[in-house]
Amino acid sequence: MSISNPHFSGYGLGLRKEHYCDFLETSVPVDFVEVISENFMVAGGQPRHILRQVRERYPVALHGVSLSIGTAEGLDTNYLQRLKSLVDEVEPLFVSDHLSWSRSAGFNAHDLLPVPYTDEALDRVCANIHQAQDVLGRTMLFENPSSYLAFDGASMSEWEFIAAMAKRTGCELLLDVNNVFVSASNHGFDALAFLDGIPAERVRQVHLAGHSQGRELLIDSHDSPVCAGVWELYAEAMTRLGPVATMIERDDEIPPLTELLRELSRARALGAQR
Amino acid sequence: MNLAALQQVFSHWLVNASDEFAQLLGNNAAGLAVYQNNYRAQLVGCLEQAFPHLRRWVGEEAFLAASITHIDSHPPHAWTLDAYPEGFYATLKDVFPRNPDVHELAWIESALNEAFVAADAEPLAPQVLAELDWDTAVLSLTPSLRCHGLTTNAEAIWSALWQETQAPEAVMLEQAGGLLVWRRQFTSRLRQVDALELAALQQVQADGSFAGLCEFLVERLGEEAGVMCAGEYLATWLGSELIVGVRDV
After folding, report:
1. Could you tell me if B240 and B154 lie in one domain?
2. Contacts of B213 (CB under 8 A, 6+ apart)
3. Label partner for B67 (CA 20 to 30 A): which of A33, A35, A109, A235?
4. Range of the domain at B148
5. How far is CA B205 from CA A12, B74, B142, B175, B246, in A?
6. Domain count for chain B
7. What CA–CA distance (Å, rounded) separates A264 from A273?
8. Helix, strand, or coil here: B141?
9. For strand A95-98 and strand A32-36, is the pairing parallel, antiparallel, or unpaired?
10. A 244-263 residues inside an 8 A Cβ radius of B
């Protein structure tokens, strides 16, 4: 099984429709782009055509939202085969998804729902990761999601769960610094304890994003610039990590590309200081 | 509660938002509210994005009410949100039982969305036809083609909404017709046709036989007019890139 580009340490952006022309008609100063896998797991048409064109110009990372690695009933093999088809065509830098679940008994929530940090859930997540990695023939990266509740009966912290998951499956990690910030605020844990608790050598990619203040909780909204607290946490994270790719993730209220490139320059500068 | 049970309770709670399921998930009112909002906002947004012109046609309030009805009665099942709008057509028939214009607008937008990401296919090169035995020729239509009956001026309404001009009042057509949606290269197309062309195209969709098409049209138009009509349809469909393959059997 191949692992994901262990020495890649570039800076990239999420590819969004608003910027297709920029990426295809100009040379955008990024080292890679990340696309949402499911947007391109279609039979044909413009999405696949654009992805092929983008792939000719930039390295591409595939980032999924629907694998549902934490689902109790096992993975959707139809989904996995479609993902494999896309992976085989794109030959991406990374293939990632979230440590979450969205599917249960035929229902699909289309959201990144929280996994209870229990031994039973760890066994299931690890079995699912083994299955996914076996089908894809390569390691995957799993991202820590933002969460808004914790279940009774947890037997370990989120970072202990992630560390055990990575150790048992050989999977790699996508560290979303904003999600650490949001979850730490929502659950009252120490964000630095999270950074110290995960296996730094397994982190291949970092996400940076903005969030918003809800009525009682921080919401991972991806609709605003990276805030000062997340930049500070990113600087802390970079002192702990090895070669790692960093990208700015914006999914709503998409600004002009220049604004995102300014944020990416800031990430580059912080990365260079470590 | 084991993992499977917890996930089923969570799913039931997202769909029903009942206190019973919330209590089973612990004292997490604020967090549960975020997930409940995310779930519903995601699905409302999905329907709004899939049916932008229908939304303008019925009005935002009525569209939102129909969306909520749909979300409450049709939880999503597929791994892709692209599949979720498919079922909205049936809900609209229940919510707007006397508005065939609404149903047909919904069909148009749904078909355009499906065609946009349908499998690719190269249009048939005209020179392929030169040496074909038409008695045994079987035509293949583009996989993006969607056909539907038409009873109202929904095509005119949709076109006006798309062009952001004044849409006409909804009226019933004097004679029922049909709608074709397909994709040429990367652009989805919509065309209104008469009932005969719709039926002829559906005949080809069913068995592909050009001889069968001729027979179908001869039965309706007579020998000479039927064969001539088949030739005209073939030319039109080739020009529109609806035909992507042909073989002798």
Report:
1. yes
2. B139, B200, B203, B204, B230, B233
3. A35
4. 120-249
5. 46, 30, 10, 23, 13
6. 2
7. 14
8. strand
9. unpaired
10. none
Q: Residue B27 domain-assigned? A: yes
Q: Do B39 and A76 touch (CB under 8 A)?
A: no
Closest residue of A to B33, CA-based?
A148
pTM of the predicted structure, to 2 decimals:
0.94
Q: Do B26 and A152 touch (CB under 8 A)?
A: yes
Is residue B106 in some structural domain? no
**Cβ-Cβ contacts under 8 Å, A187 against chain B:** none
Asked if the C-beta of B55 comes within 8 angstroms of chain A's C-beta atoms, the answer is no
Residue B120 contacts A, CB cutoff 8 Å: yes
The dihedral region occupied by B241, where left means phi > 0, alpha psi between -120 and 50, and beta the remainder, is left
Inter-chain residue contact B186 with A45, CB threshold 8 Å: yes
Sign of the torsion angle spanned by Cα atoms B5, B8, B12, B14: positive
What domains can be seen in chain A, in order of their start residue? 11-273 (3.20.20.150)
| Same-domain check for residues B152 and B89 | no
Q: Do B79 and B41 share a domain, yes or no?
A: yes
Is B81 close to A111, i.e. CB distance below 8 A?
Answer: no
Q: Closest Cα of chain A to B24: distance in Å?
A: 10
Q: Of the candidates B34, B80, B81, which has its C-beta nearest A148's C-beta?
A: B34
From B67, B98, B129, the end of a domain falls on B98
